[in-house]
Amino acid sequence: MSLARHFTASEWAVLSGGLRLKDSDERDPLRSLMARDLLREDVCEQLLDTLGPVIGSPTRAITASLLGKRLSFLATGACLYAMSVYDKGLLLTLDNTVIEYSHDDGVWTSSMPLHHGQPLTYGSNEREVWRETLVQALFAGLLQPLWQTFNRVTGVSRRILWENTAVRVYSLYEKRMAKIDDPSIRERCEADFQWLMTQAEPALFGLDYNPLSHFRRPPTLVDEGQRSIRFRRTCCFYYLATEPAEYCSTCPLLRPGKCR
Predict the structure, then answer these.
(1) What are the CA-CA distances from residue 170 to residues 14, 76, 205, 253 (Å)?
(2) 9: domain range?
(3) pLDDT in tens, 65-80
(4) CATH number of the domain to which 57 belongs
(5) Angle between helices 60-85 and 144-154 (to 10 degrees)
(6) DSSP string, the chain
(7) Is residue 50 part of a domain?
(8) How do residues 163-199 score in pLDDT, each as one tens digit?
(9) Is residue 248 part of a domain?
(10) Residue 258 belongs to a domain
(11) What does the pLDDT profile of the chain (260 residues) look like in tens digits?
(12) How many domains does the chain have?
């Protein structure tokens, strides 16, 4: 059954539009593979070596970081937006998730194809357990093994990979979901974000710490106090894959008092 059939037309428009969710039969056949296959070191190395020149990356480690940023956006966006906004559970697993790595004319064009789209539902007073199940599958079940493999194959810091993930979650809740008009839905989103930040156990991420709270640096005043920016703790290396060098708006190298 088509994934889209489990959502209303307006819900699917958001998920398949900006959040890039789609059925696995619509995957890019030439630039995609199953998530579990990427855990094989030889497959991972081949993918990174293929993708590096396409995105202008000089090393496997930088390629892994930038691919990790893209995968974090695709995976957390589709899963957490469906969970918090639509109260519908997308179970992202190594065997259900397709990794696309399409990148054309300097822009990521990849999507998040899923094989089995039947949403996971919950009964009365079971939402907290349901939420934990979705979050554990997403982070501990899917992303943590991928980041471990990236680290093992390239040496890229797991801290960088996890902060890549964390900043995507911050943006999803604080920017995209903040635009929702319905107060009851916005309240649910805020409650889920608060739980993710302060109460979600490290085991749900497959770690001994909660990366969402760990990388939450206080905002820094810039432009003589006219605005504030929450700078990252680690650098994702994006500037090393651009010519001339471009920096993310929250790059720690741009933080006042830091030297490039």
Answers:
(1) 18, 10, 16, 20
(2) 3-240
(3) 999 999 999 999 999 9
(4) 1.10.510
(5) 170
(6) --GGGGS-HHHHHHHHTTT-EEEGGGS-TTSEEEGGGGGSHHHHHHHHHHHHHHHT-SSHHHHHHHHHHHHHHHHHHHHHHHHHHS--B----TTTBEEE--EETTEE---EEES----B---TT-HHHHHHHHHHIIIIIIIHHHHHHHHHHH---HHHHHHHHHHHHHHIIIIIGGG---HHHHHHHHHHHHHHHHT--GGGGTSSS-HHHHT-PPPEEETTTTEEE---SS---GGGGSSS----TT-GGGSTT---
(7) yes
(8) 999 999 999 999 999 999 999 999 999 999 999 999 9
(9) no
(10) no
(11) 588 899 999 999 999 999 999 999 999 999 999 999 999 999 999 999 999 999 999 999 999 999 999 999 999 999 999 999 999 999 999 999 999 999 999 999 999 999 987 889 999 999 999 999 999 999 999 999 999 999 999 999 999 999 999 999 999 999 999 999 999 999 999 999 999 999 999 999 999 999 999 999 888 888 776 788 889 999 999 999 998 999 998 999 988 866 55
(12) 1
A 10 A CB-CB count for 29 gives: 7
45 C-beta neighbours (distance < 10 Å), count = 14
| Rounded Cα gap, residues 68 and 202, in angstroms | 20
How far are the Cα atoms of 130, 226, 232, 259, 260 from residue 218, in angstroms, in the given order? 31, 16, 10, 20, 21
Phi-psi region of 64 (alpha: psi -120 to 50; beta: other; left: phi over 0): alpha
Is position 180 within any domain?
A: yes
Token pair recorded at residue 246? 């471009």
Tokens, residue 103: 């990148």
